[in-house]
Design goal:
The complex is a heterodimer of chains A (337) and B (326). By secondary structure, chain A is α/β, with parallel strands linked by helices. In chain A, 44% of the residues lie in helices and 14% in strands. Chain A folds into two domains: 304 residues, Thiamin diphosphate (ThDP)-binding fold, Pyr/PP domains (Rossmann fold), CATH 3.40.50; 29 residues, no CATH class. The chains are: A alpha/beta (337), B alpha/beta (326). The interface between A and B is large, with 48 and 47 residues.
Chain lengths: 337, 326
């Protein structure tokens, strides 16, 4: 990794953090509607895996998807525009927080029904095998809560029976909504569930982005070489409240120490400084760049127009198909691109 | 043209499309080595191999979810549900994923996939395996729901469904598999999705039907003809999109209609079609529109009781007589 790569990674993590913090504020102001699931605290997972996946690797995740959207290469402006339901959003304002995608970046959503995307991920891997895309791995994320639903078990079983190249990533943030893992799952280590399908698996720490990168690289290489699925349980935390990423905001030494030990951005910050990869001033400057990127994204999103009324009828079907409005057939047709 | 059963027509459509396009493949329970529970895919495994004729675990969410994923990569999966009653296990993937992904991601995702499912009662399979819940699926925008009533349409509609870039639920009625008819042999014979079709001309009463009720309606029309009543039979063929054109054209001449479906009456196809007749042709109504449907009970096992619950040709005949005041 070059120095600039390290700083890019650091900037990306701060962008994700800041974007979520700004999203929370905009939500409070009523500018973002519906549900808003923040990724704060889990940045090392998407940044780590996102930075080592290859362009042919498909990314598919659940509803906590803003971080993955950015790590997959979607411009934060476009992510923010989608959060505000604007026409410049990645789903043109029709998806919202939980339904971000950019097929050109091989980022396949953004799926809001817990666990439902797991069999879909298996199907995408089948598509690659079928078409001879031998180097492609489908990387599918889900929370610990999703491992208790039937979709998970059907999907994992199918991936093993058909020996599909899927990296199953459980982002274990210890809670499925408000219910802790030990109150919802019969086994305390999610990775144990892969054992039931004869699937290789391991549990790793997910707070250190460098560690996540190394582990993900190793496992992706293994899948590419040996084929078949692999389950990675990544221990992480989501925390709103203890959400400030900015070292400047910490006044007390103890707070800084806590940040550098428990926050993925703090941990990486300390690593870059202690390893002599970047100076405090350089990190500070990178941090400021990230903040600027997010502020620009907010400006862009706020100035982006709402979709036209006509858009209501776009993309119901891919083929020209008559559309109806309030029971009456309209002259126009629904058609995708 | 060649005379064949609906089973053969469906099998032929699948075979021809598999031969035509490498990206078409079949996945489902017992579709391969077994040859299909209803023998529709008999011989496919030997011809196309296990890559393209894929036996799955008994796991409907994995079948439909997996097909969706494969479709997203550009393949054209045909996912077979052994019966439509098992679609409830995969309900989320049908209504929350297949029907919505194209719209929700603003056209980025395409789902060129077909779900084949066997619907209908009358085979003493008991309440859980005998339902005709077609209308349930027709409720959801984003999904196309097709159900043929003749072998000819079965071939032409299934081929169109396979070539369609949209997710299509293709509903077959098990008791129609033996129904025979003339079927075009042209390998590019296609029937358009979302178009109703007049199966019999007549000026006195309009009988709207689809799937199993099409042959019943035609039989009833023959009975009516003996009484001097000429019925026009309109086959919906597609429940979504619903093409009311031929229905309304016919109704404006006959001013009387009977709608026949195998499923339950409440919130059903007949409810929808009759509501639209009143909305679109109220001035032409000479008699209340009649619905013929299944008795509102879970279907019993006992053969006599089961037939008592299912709509019969005679029910259509009597309903037609009532609306023409015959």
């Amino acid at each position: 990794m070059e120095k600039s790569d390290y700083l890019d990674l650091y900037r990306e993590m701060v962008v994700i953090r800041r974007l979520e913090e700004r999203a929370a504020e905009l939500y409070q102001k009523g500018k973002i509607g519906g549900f808003l699931h923040l990724y704060i605290g889990q940045e090392a997972v998407c940044a780590g895996i996102g930075s080592v996946r290859q362009p042919q690797d498909r990314i598919i995740t659940a509803y906590r998807d803003h971080g993955w959207a950015i790590s997959s290469g979607i411009d934060p402006k476009v992510v923010m525009a989608e959060l505000l339901g604007k026409v410049d959003g990645c789903s043109k304002g029709k998806g919202g927080s939980m339904h971000m995608a950019d097929v050109d970046k091989n980022f396949w959503g953004g799926h809001a029904i817990v666990g439902a995307h797991i069999p879909i991920a298996a199907g995408m891997a089948l598509g690659d095998v079928y078409q001879g895309n031998d180097d492609a791995v489908t990387i599918c994320m889900f929370g610990d809560g999703a491992t208790n639903i039937g979709f998970f078990h059907e999907g994992l079983n199918l991936s093993k029976v058909w020996d599909l190249p899927v990296l199953w990533v459980c982002e274990n943030n210890q809670y499925g909504m408000g219910t802790s893992v030990d109150r919802a799952s019969a086994v305390s280590e999610i990775r144990q569930k892969a054992e039931g399908y004869g699937m290789p698996n391991e549990r790793i720490e997910g707070m250190n982005v460098i560690q996540v990168r190394e582990d993900a690289t190793r496992v992706l290489d293994r899948i590419r070489k040996e084929g078949g699925p692999y389950l990675l349980e990544v221990l992480t935390y989501r925390y709103r409240g203890h959400s400030m990423g900015d070292p400047e905001r910490y006044r007390e030494k103890e707070e800084v120490k806590h940040w550098e030990e428990s926050d993925p951005i703090g941990i990486f910050h300390k690593y870059l400084r202690d390893e002599g990869i970047a100076t405090e001033a350089e990190l500070e400057a990178t941090f400021k760049e990230a903040e600027k990127i997010v502020e620009d994204a907010v400006d862009f999103a706020e100035n982006s127009p709402d979709p036209e009324d006509e858009a209501l009828f776009d993309h119901i079907y891919a083929e020209p198909t008559p559309v109806e409005y309030k029971g009456y057939r309209l002259e126009r047709e629904s058609e995708g691109r | 043209m060649a005379r064949m059963t609906m089973r053969e027509a469906i099998s032929k459509a699948l075979w021809e499309e598999m031969e035509r396009d490498e990206n078409v493949f079949i996945m489902g329970e017992e579709v391969g080595v077994w040859g299909g529970t209803y023998a529709v895919t008999k011989g496919f495994y030997d011809r196309f191999g296990e890559k393209r004729v894929r036996d799955t675990p008994i796991a409907e969410a994995a079948i439909i979810g997996g097909a969706i994923g494969a479709a997203l990569t550009g393949l054209r999966p045909i996912a077979e549900l052994m019966t439509i009653n098992f679609a409830f296990v995969a309900m989320d993937h049908i209504v929350n994923e297949a029907a919505k992904l194209h719209y929700m991601f603003a056209g980025q995702f395409k789902l060129p996939m077909v779900i084949r499912a066997v619907s209908g009662g009358g085979r003493q399979l008991g309440a859980t395996h005998s339902q005709t819940p077609d209308a349930v699926f027709a409720h959801f925008p984003g999904l196309k729901v097709v159900s043929p009533g003749t072998p000819e349409d079965a071939k032409g509609l299934l081929k169109s469904a396979i070539r369609s870039d949209d997710p299509v639920l293709f509903i077959e009625n098990a008791t129609l598999y033996q129904a025979k008819g003339e079927v075009p042999e042209d390998e590019d014979y296609l029937e358009p999705l979302g178009k109703s079709k007049v199966q019999r001309e007549g000026d006195d009463v309009t009988i709207v039907a689809y799937s199993k009720m099409v042959p019943s309606a035609l039989e009833a029309a023959d009975m009516l003809a003996e009484d001097g009543i000429e019925a026009q039979v309109v086959d919906l063929r597609s429940l979504r999109p619903l093409d009311m054109g031929p229905v309304i054209d016919s109704f404006k001449r006959t001013n009387r209609a009977v709608i026949a479906e195998e499923g339950w009456r409440s919130y059903g196809v007949g409810s929808e079609v009759s509501a639209r007749i009143y909305e679109l042709a109220f001035d032409y109504v000479d008699a209340p529109v009649k619905r013929v449907a299944q008795a509102e009970v879970p279907l019993p096992y006992n053969a006599h009781l089961e037939q008592l619950a299912l709509p019969q040709t005679e029910d259509i005949y009597h309903a037609a007589k009532e609306v023409v005041y015959g």
